[in-house]
Amino acid sequence: MLTKRIIPCLDIKNGRTVKGVNFVDLRDAGDPVELAAAYAEKGADELVFLDISATEEKRKTLAKLVLDVAEQLNIPFTVGGGISSVEDVDILLKNGADKVSINSSAVKNPDLINQLSEKFGSQCVVVAIDAKYIDGNWKVHLVGGKVPTDLDLFEWAREVEQRGAGEILFTSMDHDGTKNGFANEALSKLSEELNIPIIASGGAGKIEHFTDTFQKGKADAALAASVFHFKEIEITDLKKQLRTLGIPVRL
C-alpha cells in the first residue's frame, strides 16, 4: 500500500510566508527558507511553495527564493504561482523544483498541461484547483480564488487527468483556513473518478482532520499551512498518531 503524504505549504507574498482564512486576511507566518529547513528536518514528505500573488500581479515566480528554499531540502519540492509556459518551468526546475503546480494558466490555456507533461513528464505536473461550493455545485475559481468561473470541479479534474497531469491539488475555498476539516465528500468523489493522486487542501485544524481525509476523503496526501507554521500540530506527532490508526505513513 502506498504511504500517505503530509505536505506543508508555504504561501509566499513579498518574499514572506503568509496565511489567511478563505484566501483573505493574510498574516505573516515566517521566513520561507527557515520554515523549509525545519519541515525537511521534522519529517515532511514533500514541500509546496506557492507564490500566491504572482498571477494577480502578472509576474513570474520568485526564482531566486525558490533556489534558496531548494537548497534546504532533501524531499520533493513543488513550486507554483505565475507559471504560464514551458520556459517558466524550465527555470524553476533548474532552480531546484522537482514539480510545478499550475492553476489559472491551465484553465486559460489547457494545452499547457499537455505541453508540460510531454516535455517534463506527467510526474512533474501538478494541477491545482481552487473551488467553491455554490448552489449545489463545486465551481472552479482563478487568480488566488478571486475570479469565479462556470467550470465544474469534477469535469475539469477529468480533463486535467486526460491532458497528462500527474497529480491534482484540490483546495476547498470554503474550508481554507477555517480549521474545520477538509472537503471529504468532494475529495472522495475525485478519488473515485480519477486514477491520479489527489492532494487534499483547505481545512486542517487537528489531527482527526487528517485521519478523516485519508479514510473518508480517500486523499493520497494532505496539505496544510497554519497548523504547521504556528506549531499547533507537529508533523512527527501527527504521523505517529496516523500510524497507530493503521494509516500508512513514512516515519
Automatic annotation (TrEMBL):
What SUPFAM superfamilies does its record include?
Ribulose-phoshate binding barrel
Determine the domain of life of the protein's source. Answer: Bacteria
- Pfam families named in the record: His_biosynth (PF00977)
Q: Mind listing the UniProt keywords for this protein, alphabetically?
A: Amino-acid biosynthesis, Cytoplasm, Histidine biosynthesis, Lyase
Where in the cell?
Answer: Cytoplasm
**If you read the UniProt record, what top EC class would you report for this enzyme, in one word?**
lyase
Which Gene Ontology cellular component annotation is one that this UniProt entry carries? cytoplasm
Q: What is its main location?
A: cytoplasm
Identify the pathway.
Answer: Amino-acid biosynthesis; L-histidine biosynthesis; L-histidine from 5-phospho-alpha-D-ribose 1-diphosphate: step 5/9
Q: What is its EC number?
A: 4.3.2.10
Tell me which residues this entry annotates as catalytic.
11, 130
The processes (GO biological process) annotated in the record are: L-histidine biosynthetic process
Q: Which residues form a coiled coil?
A: none
A GO molecular function term, named singly, is: imidazoleglycerol-phosphate synthase activity
Q: Which reactions fall under this protein's catalytic activity?
A: 5-[(5-phospho-1-deoxy-D-ribulos-1-ylimino)methylamino]-1-(5-phospho-beta-D-ribosyl)imidazole-4-carboxamide + L-glutamine = D-erythro-1-(imidazol-4-yl)glycerol 3-phosphate + 5-amino-1-(5-phospho-beta-D-ribosyl)imidazole-4-carboxamide + L-glutamate + H(+)
PANTHER family xrefs: IMIDAZOLE GLYCEROL PHOSPHATE SYNTHASE HISHF, IMIDAZOLE GLYCEROL PHOSPHATE SYNTHASE SUBUNIT HISF/H IGP SYNTHASE SUBUNIT HISF/H
Instruction: Summarize the protein's role.
Output: IGPS catalyzes the conversion of PRFAR and glutamine to IGP, AICAR and glutamate. The HisF subunit catalyzes the cyclization activity that produces IGP and AICAR from PRFAR using the ammonia provided by the HisH subunit.
Q: Which family does it belong to?
A: Belongs to the HisA/HisF family.
Describe its assembly: Heterodimer of HisH and HisF.
List the HAMAP family: HisF
Q: What is this protein called?
A: Imidazole glycerol phosphate synthase subunit HisF
Q: Which organism is it from?
A: Christiangramia oceanisediminis
Higher taxonomy: Bacteria, Pseudomonadati, Bacteroidota, Flavobacteriia, Flavobacteriales
What is the name of the gene encoding this protein? hisF
